[in-house]
Every structure is written in C-alpha cells, then in structure tokens.
Amino acid sequence: MEKIEVVYKEKARLSIQSIAMYIEENGYPETSEKFAIKLFEFGDSLENFPNKYPLCKRKSLKRQNLKCATFKKNYIFVYKLIETELVIYNVIHSKRLK
Predict the structure, then answer these.
(1) Domains and CATH numbers, the chain
(2) What is the Cα–Cα distance from 70 to 26, expressed in whole angstroms?
(3) What is the DSSP letter of 73?
(4) Are 41 and 34 in contact (CB under 8 A)?
C-alpha cells in the first residue's frame, strides 16, 4: 500500500490559525499554540485510517464526497482522499455547520 500524503489547503491552514488566534485573544497564549499543534497532529493522523470517518452530513459537502472527521467534539476536519493524497479542505467549528 502506498503512503498517503496529507495536504492542507490554504483555507484549512487559515482556519487552524484563526482558531489559535481566537484562543490566544481570549487570554490563553500557551494553550493556543499547543491546540494548533494538536489540530495539525489530528489532521496528519487521518492518513492512517482515511476511510474511518463518514461522508459529511451537510448536503453541499456530501455531494462533493467530502468526509468529516470530528476532533474534540467541536472541530470538524473536511477532507477527501484523492488517490494517494488526503486533502484537508477546511477545519470548521461544529456550531458553524448548524
């Protein structure tokens, strides 16, 4: 089996950066950096079991065959496996999907 490469689209990187900035602005600078690292670690770990998570429930994402992986109950990684690349399109707070 070929190794899967995780690729973050710019939107996903900016979303993680935005999440970290929000945490920092709320008085937790050390936590913000650690949390951003954990988000990237989770995203990178999707390469191990890329089909573990279901298609997204939101119809607009489901139509594109995008999968949604939940991290810490509140953050959704929107991704798709394309041959040997696992492309992470965005990281969204779960409240924004409702």
Answers:
(1) 5-93 (3.30.2310.20)
(2) 23
(3) T
(4) no
Please, how many CA atoms are within 13 Å of residue 36, restricted to the half-sphere of its CB?
Answer: 18
Q: Which 3 state secondary structure label does DSSP give 39?
A: helix
Separation CA 42–CA 30 (nearest Å): 19
How many CB atoms are located within 10 Å of the residue 47 CB? 15
pTM of structure? 0.92
Residue whose structure tokens are 């390469």: 47
Gap between the Cα atoms of 60 and 55, Å rounded: 11
Q: Which two tokens stand for residue 51?
A: 């089909």
Using CB atoms within 10 Å of the CB of residue 15, give its burial: 0 to 12 exposed, 13 to 18 middle, 19+ buried: buried
Q: What is the pLDDT of residues 14-71, one digit of tens each?
A: 999 999 999 999 988 889 999 999 999 999 999 999 999 999 999 999 999 999 999 9
